[in-house]
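QA checklist item 7 of 12: single-chain prediction sanity check.
[x] sequence parsed
[x] length recorded as 199
[x] structure emitted
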Amino acid sequence: MAWGGSGDDTLNGDLGFDSLEGGSGDDILIGLNGFDTLLGGDGDDFLNGGFGNDSLMGGAGDDTLNGGLGSDSLDGGAGNDVLFGLNGHDILIGGAGDDDLEGNAGNDTLEGGAANDTMRGGQGADVFVFTGGDDVIRDYSLIVDRLEIEADLLLPGQELADLAAVTDGNLVFSFGAGDSLTLNAITNLGMVLDNVTFV
Protein backbone atom coordinates (compact mmCIF):
# COMPACT_ATOMS: atom_id res chain seq x y z
CA MET A 1 0.00 0.00 0.00
CA ALA A 2 1.11 3.54 -0.80
CA TRP A 3 -0.07 6.22 1.64
CA GLY A 4 0.03 9.92 0.86
CA GLY A 5 -0.68 11.32 4.31
CA SER A 6 -1.31 15.05 4.68
CA GLY A 7 -0.64 17.42 1.79
CA ASP A 8 -1.28 17.27 -1.95
CA ASP A 9 0.17 13.98 -3.13
CA THR A 10 0.65 12.14 -6.43
CA LEU A 11 0.68 8.34 -6.14
CA ASN A 12 1.24 5.93 -9.03
CA GLY A 13 0.70 2.19 -9.09
CA ASP A 14 2.55 -0.30 -11.27
CA LEU A 15 1.85 -3.63 -12.98
CA GLY A 16 0.48 -5.39 -9.88
CA PHE A 17 -2.57 -5.13 -7.66
CA ASP A 18 -2.04 -1.79 -5.97
CA SER A 19 -3.68 -0.04 -3.03
CA LEU A 20 -3.23 3.72 -3.03
CA GLU A 21 -4.60 6.02 -0.32
CA GLY A 22 -4.22 9.76 -0.63
CA GLY A 23 -5.14 10.82 2.90
CA SER A 24 -5.89 14.50 3.45
CA GLY A 25 -5.12 17.05 0.76
CA ASP A 26 -5.92 17.33 -2.94
CA ASP A 27 -4.37 14.16 -4.29
CA ILE A 28 -3.77 12.48 -7.66
CA LEU A 29 -3.94 8.67 -7.66
CA ILE A 30 -3.14 6.67 -10.81
CA GLY A 31 -3.63 2.91 -10.73
CA LEU A 32 -2.04 1.99 -14.09
CA ASN A 33 -2.20 -1.80 -14.77
CA GLY A 34 -3.70 -4.41 -12.46
CA PHE A 35 -6.80 -4.60 -10.29
CA ASP A 36 -6.27 -1.56 -8.06
CA THR A 37 -7.93 0.02 -5.03
CA LEU A 38 -7.74 3.82 -4.88
CA LEU A 39 -8.91 5.79 -1.83
CA GLY A 40 -8.90 9.55 -2.20
CA GLY A 41 -9.63 10.50 1.41
CA ASP A 42 -10.26 14.13 2.36
CA GLY A 43 -9.74 16.86 -0.21
CA ASP A 44 -10.60 17.36 -3.88
CA ASP A 45 -8.95 14.34 -5.45
CA PHE A 46 -8.40 12.94 -8.94
CA LEU A 47 -8.44 9.14 -9.25
CA ASN A 48 -7.73 7.14 -12.42
CA GLY A 49 -7.94 3.37 -12.29
CA GLY A 50 -6.13 2.72 -15.57
CA PHE A 51 -6.28 -0.84 -16.91
CA GLY A 52 -7.99 -3.62 -14.96
CA ASN A 53 -11.10 -3.95 -12.81
CA ASP A 54 -10.53 -1.25 -10.22
CA SER A 55 -12.24 0.08 -7.10
CA LEU A 56 -12.19 3.87 -6.68
CA MET A 57 -13.53 5.72 -3.63
CA GLY A 58 -13.32 9.49 -3.58
CA GLY A 59 -14.12 10.14 0.08
CA ALA A 60 -14.85 13.67 1.30
CA GLY A 61 -14.37 16.56 -1.11
CA ASP A 62 -15.27 17.33 -4.72
CA ASP A 63 -13.57 14.47 -6.51
CA THR A 64 -13.10 13.32 -10.10
CA LEU A 65 -13.05 9.55 -10.60
CA ASN A 66 -12.10 7.94 -13.91
CA GLY A 67 -12.41 4.18 -13.99
CA GLY A 68 -10.34 3.71 -17.14
CA LEU A 69 -10.44 0.40 -18.99
CA GLY A 70 -12.05 -2.57 -17.27
CA SER A 71 -15.20 -3.15 -15.23
CA ASP A 72 -14.76 -0.73 -12.36
CA SER A 73 -16.54 0.29 -9.17
CA LEU A 74 -16.63 4.04 -8.46
CA ASP A 75 -17.99 5.68 -5.30
CA GLY A 76 -17.77 9.45 -5.07
CA GLY A 77 -18.54 9.71 -1.36
CA ALA A 78 -19.34 13.12 0.11
CA GLY A 79 -19.02 16.23 -2.02
CA ASN A 80 -19.97 17.21 -5.58
CA ASP A 81 -18.22 14.57 -7.63
CA VAL A 82 -17.69 13.69 -11.29
CA LEU A 83 -17.54 9.98 -12.17
CA PHE A 84 -16.54 8.49 -15.53
CA GLY A 85 -16.87 4.76 -16.10
CA LEU A 86 -15.31 4.64 -19.60
CA ASN A 87 -15.08 1.09 -21.03
CA GLY A 88 -16.37 -1.99 -19.22
CA HIS A 89 -19.42 -2.85 -17.16
CA ASP A 90 -19.05 -0.27 -14.41
CA ILE A 91 -20.86 0.56 -11.17
CA LEU A 92 -21.04 4.29 -10.40
CA ILE A 93 -22.37 5.62 -7.08
CA GLY A 94 -22.38 9.35 -6.55
CA GLY A 95 -22.95 9.37 -2.80
CA ALA A 96 -23.84 12.59 -0.98
CA GLY A 97 -23.66 15.82 -2.96
CA ASP A 98 -24.63 17.01 -6.44
CA ASP A 99 -22.86 14.52 -8.67
CA ASP A 100 -22.33 13.98 -12.40
CA LEU A 101 -22.16 10.32 -13.47
CA GLU A 102 -21.27 9.08 -16.96
CA GLY A 103 -21.07 5.36 -17.67
CA ASN A 104 -19.83 5.54 -21.30
CA ALA A 105 -19.38 2.18 -23.07
CA GLY A 106 -20.59 -1.03 -21.44
CA ASN A 107 -23.61 -2.16 -19.43
CA ASP A 108 -23.35 0.15 -16.44
CA THR A 109 -25.21 0.71 -13.18
CA LEU A 110 -25.54 4.34 -12.10
CA GLU A 111 -26.85 5.53 -8.73
CA GLY A 112 -26.76 9.24 -8.00
CA GLY A 113 -27.35 8.94 -4.27
CA ALA A 114 -28.60 11.85 -2.18
CA ALA A 115 -29.01 15.42 -3.54
CA ASN A 116 -29.33 16.54 -7.17
CA ASP A 117 -27.51 14.35 -9.66
CA THR A 118 -27.08 14.09 -13.42
CA MET A 119 -26.62 10.67 -15.04
CA ARG A 120 -25.65 9.54 -18.53
CA GLY A 121 -25.39 5.85 -19.24
CA GLY A 122 -23.69 6.06 -22.63
CA GLN A 123 -23.59 3.03 -24.90
CA GLY A 124 -24.91 -0.30 -23.64
CA ALA A 125 -27.84 -1.53 -21.56
CA ASP A 126 -27.68 0.55 -18.40
CA VAL A 127 -29.49 0.49 -15.06
CA PHE A 128 -30.32 3.78 -13.37
CA VAL A 129 -30.98 3.60 -9.63
CA PHE A 130 -33.06 6.35 -8.01
CA THR A 131 -33.08 6.68 -4.22
CA GLY A 132 -34.19 10.29 -3.82
CA GLY A 133 -33.16 13.85 -4.59
CA ASP A 134 -33.76 15.72 -7.84
CA ASP A 135 -32.05 13.55 -10.46
CA VAL A 136 -31.89 13.88 -14.23
CA ILE A 137 -31.15 11.09 -16.70
CA ARG A 138 -29.83 12.66 -19.90
CA ASP A 139 -29.82 9.68 -22.27
CA TYR A 140 -32.37 7.08 -21.13
CA SER A 141 -33.01 4.45 -23.83
CA LEU A 142 -36.50 3.00 -24.05
CA ILE A 143 -35.04 -0.04 -25.82
CA VAL A 144 -32.28 -1.27 -23.52
CA ASP A 145 -32.15 0.75 -20.27
CA ARG A 146 -33.92 0.03 -16.97
CA LEU A 147 -34.92 1.94 -13.84
CA GLU A 148 -34.60 0.78 -10.25
CA ILE A 149 -36.57 2.97 -7.85
CA GLU A 150 -36.52 2.83 -4.07
CA ALA A 151 -39.92 1.47 -3.06
CA ASP A 152 -40.12 3.65 0.06
CA LEU A 153 -40.47 6.75 -2.14
CA LEU A 154 -44.05 5.71 -2.91
CA LEU A 155 -46.83 5.99 -0.36
CA PRO A 156 -48.94 2.89 0.39
CA GLY A 157 -51.34 2.28 -2.48
CA GLN A 158 -49.62 4.81 -4.73
CA GLU A 159 -48.83 3.89 -8.34
CA LEU A 160 -45.77 5.18 -10.16
CA ALA A 161 -47.89 6.18 -13.15
CA ASP A 162 -49.85 8.58 -10.93
CA LEU A 163 -46.65 10.51 -10.21
CA ALA A 164 -45.67 10.99 -13.86
CA ALA A 165 -46.17 13.98 -16.13
CA VAL A 166 -44.62 15.18 -19.38
CA THR A 167 -43.16 18.66 -18.96
CA ASP A 168 -41.37 20.48 -21.80
CA GLY A 169 -40.83 17.19 -23.63
CA ASN A 170 -39.36 15.42 -20.59
CA LEU A 171 -40.94 12.69 -18.46
CA VAL A 172 -40.93 13.76 -14.80
CA PHE A 173 -41.77 11.59 -11.79
CA SER A 174 -42.61 13.79 -8.78
CA PHE A 175 -42.40 12.03 -5.42
CA GLY A 176 -43.11 13.37 -1.95
CA ALA A 177 -40.66 15.45 0.10
CA GLY A 178 -39.44 17.25 -3.03
CA ASP A 179 -37.88 14.23 -4.73
CA SER A 180 -38.07 14.00 -8.52
CA LEU A 181 -36.67 11.98 -11.39
CA THR A 182 -36.53 13.47 -14.90
CA LEU A 183 -35.93 11.50 -18.09
CA ASN A 184 -34.81 13.95 -20.75
CA ALA A 185 -36.50 13.76 -24.17
CA ILE A 186 -38.70 10.83 -23.08
CA THR A 187 -42.50 10.99 -23.33
CA ASN A 188 -43.62 7.34 -23.60
CA LEU A 189 -44.64 6.49 -20.05
CA GLY A 190 -45.83 2.99 -20.90
CA MET A 191 -42.46 1.84 -22.25
CA VAL A 192 -40.69 3.26 -19.21
CA LEU A 193 -43.02 1.49 -16.79
CA ASP A 194 -42.33 -1.82 -18.55
CA ASN A 195 -38.72 -1.61 -17.36
CA VAL A 196 -39.06 -0.44 -13.75
CA THR A 197 -38.07 -2.48 -10.71
CA PHE A 198 -38.70 -1.38 -7.12
CA VAL A 199 -35.89 -2.03 -4.66
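[x] summary fact logged: The first helix runs from residue 189 to 193.
[ ] second reviewer sign-off
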